[in-house]
Design a protein that fits this description.
The protein is mainly alpha-helical and 137 residues long. The protein folds into two domains: 61 residues, 434 Repressor (Amino-terminal Domain); 59 residues. The chain has eight helices and no strands.
Length: 137
């Protein structure tokens, strides 16, 4: 299976014409056609756009071994994400770790992406991580 066939599979899963798919990526239909026919490889920026717009892992596009595009990211539940940021801030305060808002958000993103719900063993792991981090400072 080729990169072109995998890009075509993504487009078909999205139920879009070549023109509509290419437009969402910011390229021409002719360029997309060349990718799908393996005449030219897609540039990195196209792979990034495929991830952003169609939620598909770029690694699969390049090296996948089937034609079933796996999801890379999932639609974000912003309320849950905001809850994750608040919970990370609360845990940081518990262990007396002072983090900037940017650091709190980065850590919350990591935990959120891993599906953490900040209860039981997940919460204990995060507390231990933050304690270790605060000792290193």
């Amino acid at each position: 299976m080729s990169v072109g066939k995998r890009i075509e599979a993504i487009r078909k899963r999205a139920e879009l014409s070549q023109g509509a798919f290419a437009e969402k990526l910011g390229f021409s239909r002719r360029t997309l056609h060349a990718w799908e026919k393996d005449l030219t490889p897609p540039p990195v920026v196209a792979l990034v756009r495929i991830r952003e717009v169609f939620d598909v892992d770029p690694e699969w596009v390049i090296m996948g071994n089937d034609l079933a595009p796996p999801r890379h990211y999932h639609q974000i539940d912003w309320d849950l994400y905001d809850e994750a940021v608040r919970e990370v801030a609360k845990i940081a305060a518990e262990v007396r770790l002072v983090l900037t808002n940017e650091q709190l958000e980065r850590l919350a993103r990591i935990e959120f992406a891993n599906g953490a719900r900040f209860a039981g063993p997940e919460r204990a792991r995060l507390i231990e991580y933050m304690r270790t981090f605060s000792l290193e400072r």
